[in-house]
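Researcher: Let's do a round of design. I'm pasting the C-alpha cells now; please hold your answer until I've finished.
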C-alpha cells in the first residue's frame, strides 16, 4: 500500500499481510489477512508511531514507504512505541543499522522489553499518563498508559491538535484493507466484512484481557478523539464512536451479552454422535437459528473462539473416549477457558459404548477453569441415538433456545 494522508501532518504507512498460510502469533489463522499500520506525525520534528515490519519478515517495507514520503530514516527524531510486541517493534533492529540518532518514548515496562528483546538501553524516555512530547508547529503527542491491553507495557498516543488517537492493538481488527482505509469511504459491505474480523481479532488476541479493554474504552471516551487510528485495521476519522461502540459490544460478548446465535461444537469418532448432531442441526435450521457448525478436530482454535464468543448458546456434542471426554473437545474447552469466555448457556450430548464419562469431565472442566457455563441440559446415550434419545435432545435444544 502507498503512504496515505490521514489528516494534516499525519500519514499512514500500512502493509497488507496477504499470505493466509501465516499464523498471527504463530497460533491464529488469518484467512482474510491482516494489516500492519504505522503512522508518521510531522511537526518541526518527526515522529513515527509503531512499525509495520518484523513479523511479516520484510523489514524493508517500512523504509520503502518512508522513501515515498521523502523521509530519510535519519530524519526520524522520535520512535513512539505504544506496544512492544514484535509485529509492531521488530523493525527497530533493522532501523538501528541505518541510524541510531533517534529518541524512544515508551512506558517503563516497554523500556525493559526493549533491553530484553533488542539490547536497546540508550535514548529511552519512559513516560506515564499525561506526559507530552512537543514536536513543534503545534503538533503535540500526549501519552496514556493502558496496561493489560494485550501486554502490560501498552499505551495509547494522542496527537492533541487534531485529536488523533493511536491506540495500537486497541480497536484493532484482522482482515486486509482492499480499498480506502478510512471509515468515510467504506460501504456497509465493508463494515460487515470488518464486523466479523473484529470479533475474530478480539476473540483470538484480546479476550483474555477484557477488563483492561473495558478500562481503555472508558479512557478513550474521556480523551474524546476525533480520529482513531489503530495498529491493525481501518482508520475511523469521520465517526470514531462507531469503533468504540463496536468494541463495547464485543467485550460484553465474553461475559454473556452475545448475539442470539448458536455454536454447535462437535466431534464424532464413528458417526454415532454425528447422527444426533445431524438431527439437532436440522432442528436449528427449521427454527431459523443462526448456527455455527464446527467439527472437531478439523476446525481451528481461532475459529472456535470467534464463534463461541459471539453465541448466546453453545451445543457441545462429543462421545466418551476411554472413560473421559473426546480429547479434541477437552482441548477446545481448555482454549476457551484460557480466553475467559464465560457465562454461556450450553447443552451437552454424546454417545458411549460401555460407560459414560464425557459429561462428568465437562462438569469438571467447567468447575476447574471457572468458566461459569450453565449446562442447562445433558444427555449421554448408548451407541446410536434412538427415537427417545432424539426426543430428549429436541427438548434440550428447545430449552436452550428459550433460555437464550
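Researcher: That's everything. Go ahead.
Model: Designed sequence:
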Amino acid at each position: 500500500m502507498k503512504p496515505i494522508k490521514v489528516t494534516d501532518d499525519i500519514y499512514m504507512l500500512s502493509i497488507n499481510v496477504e499470505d493466509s498460510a501465516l499464523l498471527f502469533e504463530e497460533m491464529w489463522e488469518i484467512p482474510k489477512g491482516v494489516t500492519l499500520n504505522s503512522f508518521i506525525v510531522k511537526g518541526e520534528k518527526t515522529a513515527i508511531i509503531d512499525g509495520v515490519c518484523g513479523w511479516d519478515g520484510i523489514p524493508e517495507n517500512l523504509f520503502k514507504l518512508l522513501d515515498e514520503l521523502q523521509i530519510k530514516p535519519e530524519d526520524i527524531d522520535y520512535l513512539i512505541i505504544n506496544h512492544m510486541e514484535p509485529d509492531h517493534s521488530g523493525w527497530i533492529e533493522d532501523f538501528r543499522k541505518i541510524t541510531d540518532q533517534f529518541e524512544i518514548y515508551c512506558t517503563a515496562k516497554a523500556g525493559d522489553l526493549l533491553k530484553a528483546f533488542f539490547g536497546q538501553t540508550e535514548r529511552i524516555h519512559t513516560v506515564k499518563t499525561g506526559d507530552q512530547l512537543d514536536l513543534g508547529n503545534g503538533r503535540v503527542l500526549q501519552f496514556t498508559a493502558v496496561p493489560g491491553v494485550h501486554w502490560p507495557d501498552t499505551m495509547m498516543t494522542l496527537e492533541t491538535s487534531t485529536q488523533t488517537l493511536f491506540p495500537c492493538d486497541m480497536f484493532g481488527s484482522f482482515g486486509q484493507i482492499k480499498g480506502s482505509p478510512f471509515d468515510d469511504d467504506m460501504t456497509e459491505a465493508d463494515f460487515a466484512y470488518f464486523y466479523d474480523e473484529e470479533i475474530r481479532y478480539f476473540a483470538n488476541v484480546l479476550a483474555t484481557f477484557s477488563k483492561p479493554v473495558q478500562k481503555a474504552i472508558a479512557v478513550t471516551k474521556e480523551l474524546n478523539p476525533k480520529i482513531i487510528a489503530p495498529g491493525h485495521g481501518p482508520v475511523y476519522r469521520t465517526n470514531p464512536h462507531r469503533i468504540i461502540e463496536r468494541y463495547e459490544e464485543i467485550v460484553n460478548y465474553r461475559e454473556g451479552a452475545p448475539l442470539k446465535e448458536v455454536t454447535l461444537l462437535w466431534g464424532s469418532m464413528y458417526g454415532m454422535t454425528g447422527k444426533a448432531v445431524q438431527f439437532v442441526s436440522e432442528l436449528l435450521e427449521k427454527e431459523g437459528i443462526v448456527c455455527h457448525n464446527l467439527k472437531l478436530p478439523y476446525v481451528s482454535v481461532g475459529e472456535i473462539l470467534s464463534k463461541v464468543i459471539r453465541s448466546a448458546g453453545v451445543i457441545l456434542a462429543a462421545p466418551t473416549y476411554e472413560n473421559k471426554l473426546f480429547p479434541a473437545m477437552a482441548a477446545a474447552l481448555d482454549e476457551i477457558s484460557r480466553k475467559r469466555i464465560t457465562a454461556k448457556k450450553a447443552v451437552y450430548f454424546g454417545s458411549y459404548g460401555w460407560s459414560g464419562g464425557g459429561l462428568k469431565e465437562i462438569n469438571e472442566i467447567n468447575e476447574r477453569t471457572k468458566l461459569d457455563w450453565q449446562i442447562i441440559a445433558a444427555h449421554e446415550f448408548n451407541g446410536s441415538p434412538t427415537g427417545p434419545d432424539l426426543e430428549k435432545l429436541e427438548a434440550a435444544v428447545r430449552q436452550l433456545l428459550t433460555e437464550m
